[in-house]
Prior knowledge:
The protein has 263 residues and is mainly α. The protein folds into 2 domains: 1-74, no CATH class; 109-263, Fusion Protein Consisting Of Minor Coat Protein, Glycine Rich Linker, Tola, And A His Tag, Chain: A, Domain 2 (2-Layer Sandwich), CATH 3.30.1150. It is 50% helix and 8% strand.
Amino acid sequence: MNAHLYPGQHEKVISGAGAFGMHLLLLALLVFGVNWQKKVEPQVNIVDLWTNLPSQVKPKVEPPPPAPEPEVKPEPKPVEPTPVKVAPKPEVAKPDIAMKKKAEKEKAETEKAEKDRRLLKEKQIAARKREEEAKAAQKQQVKEAETQRLAREQEDAQRRIAEQQASAQAKLKNEYVERIRTRIRRFVVLPPNIQGNPKAEFDVVLLPGGEVLGVKLKRASGNAAYDSAVERAILKAQPLPLPPDPAMFKDFRELNLEFRPQE
């Protein structure tokens, strides 16, 4: 019965193996905690080992001394690779010929655009000028047509006036010529035994007052006595009646008068 009160050699081995396993577990936890960069306080676990002892008071088993805390070495930082500087690719300089051609092309395009703008502007100016000239020509044509119309109307009016005046003058002249012939016939003494109705024609030249400046027989009637009687009557009838308008005297300066005995 006393042999079961104290642990034997076998129980000590089991107890030591358990303690060693616990130490290994604690060490693994510490390493794992360091890897996750978390500081974990070490824990002391007290393991009570019991055997199938009788109901007597069990002796207190002293825990083994804590294992020394292993030195945790900091995890080495990963070495970042040094970036390799890639030298920039040298720009390939364009040949001078290509640059020159490009500049010449741009210059030609600029000059062409400027020329096109200038030509367009000139065309617009020329078009406006032609339009203005056309309007001016049309206006001038209208003005000339109006002037010609007015001139024709004026000429027509003047011609009508002249015709009216001429007609009036001719009528007035015929009227006064008939007055002169009537006055002269009053002074004609017809000779006896006149046969037929012969015509005697005289050219008479008058003065502005109606006086007879000259008388000339232009066409004889065939009866000398009758011709002489008419000539004497022309001279006796002066001054002959003339129109009151002195401007008409030119139509009476030289008169051609005809006489017949039976008028």
